[in-house]
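Q: Got a minute? One more chain.
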Amino acid sequence: MQSNDRYIRHEILEEIGPAGQRRISAASVLLVGCGALGSSQAQMLARAGVGRLRVVDRDLVEVTNLQRQILFDEEDAAALLPKAVAAQRKLSRINSEIEIDARVADVNAGNLESLLAGCDLVLDACDNLETRYLVNDACVKAGVPWVYGGVVGTSGMVMAVRPGDGPCLRCLFPELPPPGAVVSCEVVGVLNAAPVVIGALQAVEALKLIAGGARGSNGVLTLDLWRHSFQKVALARDERCPCCSQRRFEFLEAPRPELARTIGCDAVQLFPCGEDRPSLPALAERLAGQGRVTGNEHLLRFAAGQHTLQVFADGRVVVKGTDEVEVARQLCSRFLTAPHG
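A: Always. Here it is, folded:
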């Protein structure tokens, strides 16, 4: 197939056309997270020919991901590949004509604005609400559109946010719910088709906005695949919204987050201290006599009894097997150079 025929099915599509496809090919998109939602979004945008995809994810591929994260396979899990790195390899084989910028990082208030720089649109594939509120702040502040998506169980929702032209996430959910108030996939599970459908719908909204032929959908689309229920809810901009109306970016401008915090069930992440970065080979050599050590140039995994310590090249440590911050700190103090916080 000739290169100029690659996107012909888009170019003859009335809603996109040749001009729209040129805009898609010139666009830069930030994908925040590359798990279940991100796997579907990334494939759709790569196949559509989005010129640059910046894929950011903090985690690695594990066997438990493969039930729903369609971009990855058993070889990725066995190799302990970070999701961003595995995604870059797969997407480059899908479309070698586009740029895939992989970042193994935890998205936070300190780095999000730099990750957003130069991007025309953001796709939400987060696994927590805090990061979504942060993305909302950053995008509204910068005037960059983004597409929210959420999935739990068999249901999900999608919302396109166009700063200055319609509501933002805080118009829909004014305040961040307290911990434990929102049910999660780790508690109730998730139908593997649900994030594929929601991710595809997010990709559609992204292409509408990028191609320029449509403003994106208004309001919020909710659906339940198991019950075959679809509903579109109109949503107006809240003139009292602290973010898009009052332009208070409370999540983006908040003090640095705790250096140690739980991330889902049975895991604690400890943030690096300062600019220090570990030497993974030296650490592997030191730990070799104390437990099973595996890894690669991106991370090291150390099994310590019922706990597992994952040390990333950027200095982050994820302790699996506990949701107690103090236990995680003690393990790091025992086996690693202890992160502070």
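A: The first helix runs from residue 8 to 11.
Q: Perfect, thanks.
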